[in-house]
Specification:
This protein is mainly beta and 430 residues long. Helices cover 11% and strands 56% of the residues. The chain contains four helices and 19 strands. The strands form two sheets. Strands 4-5-6-7-8-9-10-11-12-13-14-15-16-17-18-19 form a 16-stranded antiparallel barrel. The protein has a three-stranded mixed β-sheet with strand order 1-3-2. It is elongated, with a radius of gyration of 24 Å.
């Protein structure tokens, strides 16, 4: 058995043992409050539902997000489910549900306090390989309709790019979803091995546009059609080029399946989330090549002993993407021991476990510390396969009043190659 296989077996044992210690997160008094009302006034039918505390969000966003219809007996109202459905919207930092006696019926009153959702924020990402900085404007509640808009630009010594993303989780209040994401820029790319020995360097203009249209089922599963256009024009006049790839241009279509069954607790969510995607690309215009790309990711997170969070995850991708479109997975969770931004791969997979707990909880947020372990393999061009595995640690800051993560720092040690990697980010999720 190889060292990587032994490490993955040990990691699996740790993951199973940690999950076995899990327990249900402590409940709140919402069910007791409902039952006390029923004991005093009887199991009255729900005659009205009202929402208090909204400053920007439209009331229709709340009503479209919860399973609550007037007419049913109050005993059939599940306040814990309502709480989780409202937390899933991601716009509210305080949620309370109370009841009032209105003659022959009961009124359900939802009290809310909104997060800051229009956020101008600086962006910084740093690792051993790259320092990127920029500025973004995030509106996670566009015009009060729970639409998401992200617009901004980044710069580094390698180049620049501008990004825009629009997300509609409920098109016209329906169960249809849609996204549009675009990026354009110019960058110097360096492809290297784990020792950072560069074997390819080139400069290219690039752009991409991705759109999805999907339908959500039972508030947990979404099936989406995906379309993507990619363009990369390699600069033949770049004097420091080494073995530059050819320019490419392609369209791709495919299918994305997403499952999410999570429950908000303390500062984040526990439960299951998974996504699988398949795309087939074909040449656009006079240049480009056909390709296939399949990706999968799955995570299970659970709290135990009230505030200790264990997350177990797997990720992977297999493709025959053109060289200029291949991914660089280093730096993201599961690939923390892989050098960020420079190790290119057309196939990769990883398994990881993360332990996280709060270390300081002021009224405005939560600081957490985490420890993690990961192991996997990636395959570069020419059939070169490299394994990676090792431990790491980090810190996070979650702001109570802001709808995006604020800060993160991780350091990891690759036991196979002996390299130490770190990632630092402000204004994005690690």
């Amino acid at each position: 058995m190889t060292r990587l296989a032994r490490f993955l077996c040990a990691l699996a044992v740790v993951m199973i043992a940690a999950a076995a210690q899990g327990g249900d997160a402590p409940g709140n008094d919402l069910v007791a409050k409902r039952d006390a009302f029923i004991a005093q006034h009887g199991d009255l039918p729900v005659g009205e539902v009202s929402v208090h505390g909204l400053a920007k969000t439209r009331a229709s966003v709340v009503f479209d997000s919860v399973d609550l219809a007037p007419g049913a007996p109050l005993s059939r109202v599940d306040p814990e489910r309502l709480l989780q459905q409202l937390h899933a919207v991601g716009l509210f930092k305080r949620i309370d549900i109370r009841y009032a006696h209105r003659g022959d019926h009961a009124a359900v009153i939802i009290d809310l306090e909104e997060k800051w959702t229009l956020i101008p924020i600086p962006f910084v990402f740093s690792s051993r390989s790259v320092l990127r900085y920029g500025f973004f404007v995030f509106d996670t509640n566009l015009l009060g309709y729970n639409k998401k808009l992200f617009v901004g630009a980044m710069n580094s010594r390698q180049g620049w790019n501008a990004n825009a993303v629009y997300i509609d989780p409920m098109i016209m209040g329906s169960r249809f979803t849609g996204t549009v994401a675009g990026v354009v820029g110019n960058r110097i790319y360096e492809d290297a091995d784990f020792d950072r020995d560069v074997y390819r360097r080139y400069r290219a203009d690039f752009s991409s546009l991705t759109g999805t249209v999907g339908h959500e089922f039972r508030r947990t599963a979404t099936v989406s059609l995906v379309g993507r256009f990619q363009h990369a024009s390699v600069d033949p006049s770049y004097v420091d080029a080494i073995d530059a790839p050819s320019s490419e241009q392609s369209f791709a279509t495919g299918l994305r399946l997403r499952y999410r069954d999570q429950r908000y607790h303390l500062y984040t969510s526990e439960g299951v989330r998974a996504e699988a995607e398949y795309l087939h690309g074909f040449s656009a215009g006079s240049r480009g090549a056909e390709y296939d790309q399949g990706k999968i990711t799955a995570e299970f997170a659970r709290f135990f002993l009230t505030s200790h969070l264990v997350t177990l995850g797997v990720k992977g991708m297999r493709s025959n993407l053109p060289e200029v479109f291949q991914e660089r997975p280093g730096g993201q969770m599961g690939y923390k021991t892989v050098p960020s931004e420079v190790v290119q791969a057309h196939c990769h997979y990883t398994a990881y476990a993360v332990y996280e707990r709060p270390i300081y909880r002021p009224t405005w947020g939560t600081f957490t510390a985490l420890a993690f372990a990961e192991g996997g393999e990636l395959r570069r061009e020419g059939g070169v396969t490299e394994g990676f595995y090792g431990p790491g640690a980090g810190v996070r800051l979650y702001l109570k009043s802001v709808a995006i993560p604020a800060f993160g720092f991780d350091v990891a040690y690759n036991l196979r190659q002996g390299n130490v990697e770190f990632t630092f980010a402000i204004g994005m999720q690690m």
